[in-house]
Amino acid sequence: MVTEMMRAGTEYGDHLGSPRQADHEVGRVLPRGVDFHSFACRINIRALAPYRARSTQRAWEFSDDDIQAFRDELKKRSLGIASHWQHEDGGLPGVRRPRLKRALRVRGGQSVLIDNGTTTLAVARELAGAGVTALALSLHAAASLASRPGNEVIVPGGTIAGDDLSFTGIGAVETIRAMRFDIAFIGACSADPAHGLTVATWPDAQIKRAALESSARTVLVTTAAKFSRTSAHRFGSYGDLDTIITTADAPVSAIYEARQAGVEVITVPLSAIPDH
Predict the structure, then answer these.
(1) SS3 of 147-168
(2) Cβ contacts of residue 171 below 8 Å, gap of 6+?
(3) Are residues 110 and 91 in the same domain?
(4) Are 245 and 220 in contact (CB under 8 A)?
């Protein structure tokens, strides 16, 4: 049931993961011992120990096989067990979100495109020394990628914007179209489900559109705030993406729309992606 709610983007639970009045009214209540908070995508599953004399509680413990099966299910959803607390009255596995580097799923030898902007700069920092061939669309990203040995870092020709040191001219578009990428990590000023992926300037939209067209796999890296914004120039839609990596506070409605479009959504800790 939790899996179905996560796939559908259904809102459930208060800040403790207990069913709200609205959940009770529609008959949507999880079994006793299972707490789920849809906003944070946090699941707590409590299992009490077998019946003992003088105990008023009858339940079960997690066996090693149970824990492994739970790990396998969480791994499919890019989650994992952060801890397994066990004592005489029961057990509690806690669920952790993947770190940004794990969410990227980049292997050595692959070719990647790193877009301009602060969200994708976080990706560039994680991929320093990863052994990839990388086209960096800003000098900031290029410097981060080259900060440790191992990467072949390429920058396009053309003019550079003074504010964020990004490549903005036709030279950047031509360089992108002359290459093919295993993965493109794209940023956006806005990612409102109703209006698609948008940016503030026309040249930036052309660069991002070329990146989408030249990549086998496209990943949007964004913060939660950008799902409720719109900008002037549209360069794509959710249907152009394979994966969205966003922060844990992303709106449930946006996650639902993305998954309805066939996009994988991975949430990471709020501190993993800067929002400025």
Answers:
(1) CCCCCEEECCCCCECCCCCEEC
(2) 156, 157, 158, 159
(3) no
(4) yes
- What count of other Cβ atoms lies within 10 Å of the Cβ of residue 94? 14
Per residue of the chain (276 residues), give pLDDT as tens.
666 666 566 777 776 677 888 888 888 887 766 776 665 555 665 544 444 444 444 344 455 666 667 667 666 655 655 544 444 444 444 545 568 998 999 999 999 999 999 999 999 999 999 999 999 999 999 999 999 999 999 999 888 998 889 998 899 999 999 999 999 999 999 999 999 999 999 999 999 999 999 999 999 999 999 999 999 999 999 999 999 999 989 998 999 999 999 999 999 988 899 876
Domain that holds residue 70: 2-96
Final residue before a domain boundary, out of 53, 78, 96: 96
Q: What is the CATH number of the domain that holds 128?
A: 3.40.50.1360
- The owner of tokens 């120039």 is 233
CA nearest to 201, candidates 237, 165, 239, 161: 161
Q: Could you tell me if 87 and 130 lie in one domain?
A: no
Residue 206 is which amino acid?
A: Q
Rounded CA separation 14/103 (Å) = 27
How many folded domains does the chain comprise?
2
User: At which of 96, 124, 141 does a domain end?
Assistant: 96
